[in-house]
Amino acid sequence: MVKSSVIQYSLIVLVLGLAAAPKVQALGTEMFVCTGTDGVRTYQNSDGGDGCVPLNLNPITVVPAPRSASKSGGISEPASGGSSGRRATAAYDNRSAADFNAKDDRMKILQEELRIEESKLKSLQDEYKNGQPDRLGNEKNYQKYLDRVSRLEQEIMVTNDNIEILKTELIRLSK
Q1: Which of 25, 32, 65, 157 is least crowded, fewest Cβ atoms below 10 Å from its Cβ?
Q2: Which residues form a coiled coil (predicted)?
Q3: 88: confidence class by pLDDT, cuts 50, 70, 90
Q4: pTM recorded for the entire structure
Q5: Number of structural domains, the chain?
Q6: What is the Cα 90 distance to its own chain's centre?
Q7: Count of alpha carbons within 13 Å of 16, Cβ hemisphere only?
Q8: What are the tens digits of pLDDT across the range 114-166?
Q9: How much is the average pLDDT of 20-36?
């Protein structure tokens, strides 16, 4: 008895949902600008009566991103063989020296950051001593020592992650 009422209820909800779907779509396709008696404009998705006019919205234009450079160094032409691919190739070939210098500058910065992170990792590992760092004078409380060991472990993990990210970025830039 309970199962049949649940099934009936589910079917009713499904039918009502399907019946409401065209109305929801219709509401979402048109917008109205309504001006009240006080001169305040409101925007609605339904016609509110007097003072409301349909808002003419232009369709959204979607422009695809340019294709990435192929292994031969140019930008691949679109399959349609249009002239837009030739214009893109010309734009790619005519890039200024400043664009290439910016890439070199970025690589130098990343290499310097990598060097700093690697030296930081070396000093952290020296202090960590494979999980047995020396106790400092202010660590008479054993919990302070354990907190410092835990902090060192976390810093070593973060520094390793930073090094991997920098290496990945350098590889990406070198292509």
Answers
A1: 65
A2: 107-169
A3: low
A4: 0.44
A5: 3
A6: 30
A7: 6
A8: 999 999 999 999 999 998 999 888 888 999 999 999 999 999 999 999 999 99
A9: 61
Domain ranges, residue 84:
66-95
Q: How far apart are CA 81 and CA 87, in angstroms?
A: 12
Tokens of 34: 């309504």
Say what the pLDDT of residue 156 is: 95
Contacts of 111 (CB under 8 A, 6+ apart): 170
Residue 87 shares a structural domain with residue 122: no
The structure tokens listed for 77 are 């032409």
Copy the structure tokens of residue 33.
Answer: 């600008």
- Which residue shows structure tokens 């008895």? 1
Residue 151: CB partners within 8 Å, gap ≥ 6? none
Question: Using CA atoms, how far apart are residues 165 and 8, in angstroms rounded to an integer?
Answer: 56
Give the E-state strand segments of the chain in sequence order: 31-35, 41-44, 52-55
